[in-house]
Amino acid sequence: MLTRRSIARRFLTGAAVVVGVAVVTIFVVDALVSPAIFHAHLMQADLSNPETVLRHVEEGMRSSNMIALAVAILIAVLAALLVSLYLATRVSASLAPLAAAARQVAAGDYTARVDAGPLGAEFDELTEAVNAMSQRLASVEQSRTRLFSDLAHEMRTPIAVVQAQLEGIEDGVVGVEDSIPVLRAQAERLTRLSSDIGLLSQAQEHALRYEFAPGEVASVVRGCVDDMALRYREAGVQLTLDVATHARAQLDTARFAQVITNLLANALNATVSAGRGRTGDRGGHVHVGVRRHGNEVAVQVRDDGVGISPEELPHVFDRFARVGPARDRSSGGFGIGLTVARAIMSAHHGRISADSPGPGRGATFTVTVPVLH
Ligand SMILES: Nc1ncnc2c1ncn2[C@@H]1O[C@H](COP(=O)(O)OP(=O)(O)OP(=O)(O)O)[C@@H](O)[C@H]1O
Ligand SMILES: [Mg+2]
């Protein structure tokens, strides 16, 4: 409580100074005035009459006490004023920059930062809290601005395609019949964007509702692998599953399956983009492993696709992530799957991580959840 620089210690020291000054004043004034007063009284007393001696001694005592006390009170009041003035100046010197920073933040300027004031550890803590608050607001504001520009960017392509088609129809270059599938595809893309954004904002605000129940991780993974098998077959990419544990975990099966399905879809895209599979000249392969490591079950999805460079690796979980060799954003996903996956895994008290030896050398995504005992 009473740390070396705490404000309580400073106030206590101030009070002790006032009391000390008063006590010292009493002693000093008493020592200075008492002898003269006693001397004057004794000179006036009739030494042969003990009663007058006693009366003069008592009066001398009273007046020297009164004088010492009056001077001490005066000096103590002065000392209290000086100490209060000193403390008040220090307090306002510490509070003024904090108030200015709070006003700056309230006005929307999140660059406000306060230096530690001259008064006490408590004020330093307050300063740190104000700085942390404005820093956090600045980063929220920055990500909000980025979100809008990302959104505008994602909407631009389908809208441009729709506009081009309409102009083609007006100019008679494109037939209405021909443009319907194109227009429909872009409308579907915009619909998907709006539902993905809804999902993303719910996930980031921790507003997704989960229904957890004990479930076997491997069986959910097997279900996802079965569901994706056809797409893999059509793309000519081999998909294998190796289950080494039947451990159970607290799962929201639908959401957990969503994470695994996104990983399988990403791995397929990365493999096909690397020129593997049916369209490429080399066969691609995605391997899924379910293992237990201590108190966790890990699901690993390993592909031999385009891979991810070390600089891009930390950004694959960013929303609207655009990673790898210039991706065609007019047809692929919006880069939301992994952002939502991370939120879902954190709700499962688990993790999701990405690893890649580098571009062209494949990637491995790992999801872990705590084992249910
Ligand atoms: N296995 C992988 N190999 C290489 N790059 C990958 C892999 N998985 C993801 N990425 C990169 O990370 C980006 C983000 O993935 P994410 O799943 O979040 O979005 P997406 O698949 O593009 O779209 P969607 O929102 O439909 O999932 C991908 O666009 C891709 O560039
Ligand atoms: Mg995806």
From TrEMBL:
One of its GO terms (molecular function) is phosphorelay sensor kinase activity. It catalyses: ATP + protein L-histidine = ADP + protein N-phospho-L-histidine. SMART domains: HAMP (SM00304), HATPase_c (SM00387), HisKA (SM00388). The keyword Membrane applies. It is found in: Cell membrane. Its EC number is 2.7.13.3. Keywords: ATP-binding, Kinase, Membrane, Nucleotide-binding, Phosphoprotein, Transferase, Transmembrane, Transmembrane helix, Two-component regulatory system. Gene3D superfamilies: 1.10.287.130, 6.10.340.10, Histidine kinase-like ATPase, C-terminal domain (3.30.565.10). Residues 89-142 form the HAMP domain. Residues 150-373 form the Histidine kinase domain. The chain crosses the membrane at residues 12-38, 66-88. It is an enzyme of class 2 (transferase). GO terms for cellular component: plasma membrane. It comes from the Bacteria. The keyword Kinase applies. PANTHER family: SENSOR HISTIDINE KINASE TRCS, SENSOR HISTIDINE KINASE YKOH. This is histidine kinase. The lineage of its organism: Bacteria, Bacillati, Actinomycetota, Actinomycetes, Propionibacteriales.
